[in-house]
Amino acid sequence: MEIIFKLLLFDLISCKLFRLNVEKTAKQNVSSNGTVLRREDICKLDSNESQCRKLYSKDNRSTSYGEKKRNVIFVKTFQTHSSSFQNIIFRYTVNHGLNLAMPRNNGGRFFTPEPFRPDMVRPFFNEDQKPNVVASHFVASEELFDYIPDAFTFIILKSLPSLYVSTFDYLKNSTTAFATAKNIDNFYSTPEVFFNPGTPFNVYTRNHMAYNLGFDSNSTDSEYFQKAIERIENRFDVVLISDYFFESLILLQDNLRLTHDEVVTLIKDDTCDETAKISKSITNNIKKWNSFDQQLFNHFNATFWYKLEKIPDLKKRKEILMQRTEALDRY
Q: What pLDDT does 279 receive?
């Protein structure tokens, strides 16, 4: 049901974008006698190709691009605004007529905490069909990258302590460790007292970004951290940073060659982030307890900005994207 809801959500976003574009263009394109042009005429005059695709069949829509369609692997991390990026990938999948891999268990997750296996994917009606895109919650594995070859691969990370403040708020009643501690100060004062790796959902109470990427989230070995970073660099084309949401959208847009409409999305507010209320000592404890995730963020935050430096007119593009997102949110 979670995936069905999100598919409906991205369709709602597409409808909103279409109506915004039609209304905007209609105001700009009025005939000499004052008659508003028809939708078909507006579409021909407007340079926004995504709007035009909405007026025609799915087949026409999926072939309107000149570039080659790309397979996509998105490892959806937890509490990192990943749902917003997932919706973009869902829209990309539909617009290009690609096949989405969906969980066999009819949920939004591929049997986590087990590592991804191809038999976790719901079979297609046509046995000859192959998946092009996977963008749900799962634990990454070697089999994943063999299952969807030649894919554009990306993930999104988030800074600490913000990640674990929102994680605690979201799972405080669902995770034994958090529920027993009752509040975030108690848990991070003595996390080892409450933590039990064998309890359901407790994988999200320590280094859950590393866990989603297929690594040992209980490791404290700095050498292991470095090897994991090297593997991520080899496996993923782009590592986005949730804290810089619009910059991440632009980086994704450039890599997948998306239109403005395809990259604009509603920003899902995962939880109320009360990071400012966290004391310095608890902040330090959060980073220490989740040292693996902290190392991942530190490294890839630096490489993220290195990639952004190569993008021309970044500031202007960010402003335009923010304006379009605000307009979508108000509509």
A: 94
Q: How many Å apart are CA 301 and CA 158, to the nearest integer?
A: 9
Domains for the chain: give ranges and CATH numbers.
Answer: 2-330 (3.40.50)
* Band of pLDDT at residue 1, cut at 50, 70 and 90: very low
Contacts of 168 (CB under 8 A, 6+ apart): 178, 184, 187
User: d(Cα 101, Cα 66) in Å, to the nearest integer?
Assistant: 25
The pLDDT of residue 57 is 31
Peptide bond into 113 cis (omega under 30): yes
Pairing of strands 238-241, 133-134: unpaired
pLDDT 10s digits, 19-57: 444 334 334 333 333 333 333 332 333 334 443 333 323
DSSP for 133-144, written as a single string:
EE-SB-B--HHH
- Neighbouring CB atoms inside 10 A of 17's CB total 25
Q: Which residues make beta-bridge pairs with 155?
A: 75, 239
Q: What is the DSSP letter of 37?
A: P
The residue ranges of DSSP E strands in the chain, in sequence order, are 71-75, 133-134, 151-157, 238-241
**Residue 51 to residue 53: CA distance in whole angstroms:** 5
Instruction: Please tell me whether the peptide bond between 161 and the residue prior to it is cis, using omega within 30 degrees of 0.
Output: yes
What CA–CA distance (Å, rounded) separates 83 from 86?
A: 5
Query: DSSP string covering 105-142, please?
Result: TSSSBSSTTSBP-GGGBPPPSSTT----EE-SB-B--H
Q: What is the pTM of this model?
A: 0.79
CB count within 10 Å of CB 43 equals 20
The identity of residue 79, as a single letter, is: Q
Span 183-239, pLDDT tens digits: 999 999 999 999 988 787 888 999 999 999 999 999 999 999 999 999 999 999 999
